[in-house]
């Protein structure tokens, strides 16, 4: 599920989810179904 202000970047063959905050990208935990993901988002 893609949330507002998130983007996916591929680095060295792996995909990572990032949240755009204040013009900078903050990496989110890998599993969007986990509680930590929502807490960081």
Commentary on this structure:
- The chain has one helix at residues 35-40; strands at residues 6-11, 14-21, 24-27.
- It has 41 residues and is mostly beta strands.
- The protein has one domain (6-40).
- The protein has a three-stranded antiparallel beta sheet, with no helix packed on it.
- The longest helix has 6 residues, at 35-40.
Any key phrases for this structure?
1 helix, single chain, globular, mainly beta, 3-stranded antiparallel β-sheet
Give the C-alpha Rg: 10 Å
Number of helices: 1
Summarize the main sheet.
3 strands, antiparallel
- Give the mean pLDDT: 83
Number of strands: 3
Strand order of the largest sheet: 1-2-3
SSE pattern, N- to C-terminal: EEEH
Shape: globular
Please provide a brief summary of the model.
The chain is mainly β and 41 residues long.
Sequence-ordered SSE layout with sheet pairings:
Layout: E1 6-11, E2 14-21, E3 24-27, H1 35-40
Antiparallel strand pairs: 1-2, 2-3
